[in-house]
Design a protein that fits this description.
The complex is a heterodimer of chains A (257) and B (257).
Chain A: H1 2-21, H2 23-43, H3 58-88, H4 91-98, H5 102-130, H6 139-167, H7 173-185, H8 198-206, H9 208-221, H10 227-254
Helix pairs in contact in A: 1-5, 2-3, 2-5, 3-5, 3-6, 3-7, 3-9, 5-6, 6-7, 6-9, 6-10, 9-10
Chain B: H1 3-19, H2 22-42, H3 57-61, H4 63-87, H5 89-94, H6 100-128, H7 136-165, H8 168-183, H9 197-205, H10 207-221, H11 225-256
Classes of the chains: A mainly alpha (257), B mainly alpha (257).
């Protein structure tokens, strides 16, 4: 078990250091979520005045939750880019030869993705609070929101890792990014579910991300909802994509890294 | 060969080069349509905001793919020129009697062809979904002309960056900056319905707002001289700056090589 954690710590440390010391990786990860927050919460705030829009904490908090979950998901996807890049430059091949426990490699990347999401999340929270976001949820609700964001990060990270381990090229970037982007935006992004119209409404009803984003909004506004159902969906998705990523590791092993 | 014959040959190469690469044609057509589809369903409720100029968000949002598609055009133009610099094609061309104006105009022609095809597809999808153009048939033609001018404007800026840097990566790196201009404008709501003063001020000083409003005026209001004039004025000014800058950058690059 010690060997597993040694690999996890080694891979995570390397990925975090690479992320934190490389402005080309760090700046877009920090700036893009802030930009989306500004564009959505600032530019569309009058959507909060639409009849039927009854979110108690206001439009800024409504959009904050989506942007937080989106940033968490993309933190995971960007880690998948890093895995693909490591395969391209041959680092992963050497890593697989050296690591006594190869699943440790996967969890090392997952840990670095979570650290990445945590850094972006803290920045987003700070900016949102500084710009007057109303939070009606209590400490437990906020803790629930943070756990939810980390679960979304883990799920997206495992999805991207699974793709990266199978295709082992950075050209697989769109295959990692686009499905996540589409799933995120086919949820109630701008208005609550009952104010959606057309085909997006139909898709949003069956999109599992809808339950997560609505649950996150209930956390921040302190409203009652079925927490266990939402976490059940989040953990279920995480487990399914963990299995996908583990099989990806085996595929990479069979291909010789 | 005359200037026009030279331009024709360069344009032919540029058009074929563009059409033979699905990655340069499909994203500029598909991605803006997907985003428009999501926004039309997601923000349909915004038409209930008092003062919203139309009861169909599709009529309002159809301008978005035109401008977003132009952004893709700028990246395509910049990347194509940067590739010509990187591969040495431009150096070899400089040894021939080819005139600079023909090189530049020819390169931009490929982008304009894609812009025209994209524009027709956006309108076809829009009409299939119930788009109504208040200014009628002639309005559609003027809309396509304005869309082409907008594409030329962004493409010339992309070409300038490609020529200045000679690096496709640098051109791709500027894309997020263009995206900021796109979102910090009146792209999602009319300026007078943007609640936050700071956002409305940014949108007012952002020339991209006037491109949206020029296109939108033909669809929602019919023939509005001021909005249409400002749309053409800003698109023309950006195009003039971009073409002049590209021409200077091309001269400097050829002098350097």
């Amino acid at each position: 078990m010690r060997r597993f954690w040694d690999v996890v710590a080694g891979v995570a440390w390397r990925s975090i250091k690479k992320f934190a010391t490389n402005p080309q990786l760090l700046l877009p990860s920090l700036i893009f979520p802030l930009f989306f927050f500004v564009a959505f919460a600032g530019g569309l705030s009058s959507v909060g005045n639409v009849p039927g829009f009854d979110f108690p904490s206001g439009y800024t908090a409504f959009q904050f939750v989506f942007v937080l979950l989106q940033a968490s998901a993309f933190g995971g996807v960007f880690t998948g880019f890093g895995i693909a890049s490591d395969f391209e430059n041959g680092f992963s091949r050497r890593l697989m030869l050296a690591a006594p426990n190869r699943l440790g490699i996967l969890f090392g990347y997952a840990l670095s993705a979570m650290m990445r999401a945590a850094i972006v999340g803290v920045l987003l929270f700070t900016v949102a609070i500084a710009t007057g976001m109303q939070v009606h949820g209590n400490g437990v609700d906020l803790f629930g929101l943070i756990v939810l964001a980390l679960l979304v990060n883990f799920t997206a990270g495992m999805w991207a890792a699974g793709v990266a381990m199978r295709l082992r090229t950075i050209q697989a970037g769109p295959a990692m990014q686009m499905p996540v982007f589409i799933v995120l935006f086919l949820a109630p992004v701008y208005v609550p579910l009952d104010l959606l119209a057309g085909w997006v409404e139909a898709v949003a009803h069956v999109n599992p991300f809808t339950a997560l984003v609505e649950g996150g909004r209930d956390f921040i506004s302190g409203q009652d909802f079925d927490v266990w159902l939402m976490f059940g969906i989040a953990i279920g998705l995480g487990a399914a994509f963990l299995a996908w990523a583990v099989r990806g590791v085996h595929r990479a092993e069979m291909a010789g890294g | 060969m005359t200037l026009w014959q030279q331009t024709y040959e360069m344009a032919r190469r540029s058009v074929l080069q563009t059409l033979r690469q699905p990655a340069m044609v499909i994203p500029p057509v598909l991605f803006p349509l997907v985003l428009m589809g999501i926004n039309v369903s997601g923000l349909d409720a915004a038409t209930n905001i008092p003062g919203f100029p139309t009861d169909s968000y599709l009529d309002f949002a159809i301008a978005f793919p035109f401008v977003q598609g132009s952004l893709f055009a700028s990246i395509n133009a910049g990347s194509a020129i940067a590739r010509d610099v990187e591969t040495g094609f431009l150096n070899r061309l400089a040894l021939t009697p080819m005139r600079r104006a023909a090189m530049l105009l020819g390169q931009l022609a490929g982008v304009l062809v894609v812009a025209l095809i994209s524009g027709v597809i956006y309108l076809a999808v829009g009409f299939a979904a119930g788009l109504h153009v208040e200014s009628g048939f002639w309005g559609v033609l003027v809309l396509l002309v304005l869309a082409m001018l907008i594409a030329l404007a962004f493409a010339s800026v992309g070409a300038f960056i490609g020529l200045r840097t000679g690096s496709g990566e640098a051109v791709q790196g500027v894309f997020p900056l263009f995206f900021v201009f796109l979102f910090l404008s009146s792209s999602s709501l009319p300026r007078d319905l943007i609640e936050h003063d700071w956002f409305r001020t940014i949108a007012t000083y952002n020339p991209v707002s006037y491109l949206f409003e020029g296109l939108r005026s033909l669809i929602i209001f019919g023939w509005q001289g001021k909005e249409l004039g400002l749309g053409f004025l800003f698109a023309g000014t950006i195009a003039l700056i971009g073409v002049t800058g590209s021409s200077t950058a091309l001269r400097n690059r050829l002098a350097r090589t």
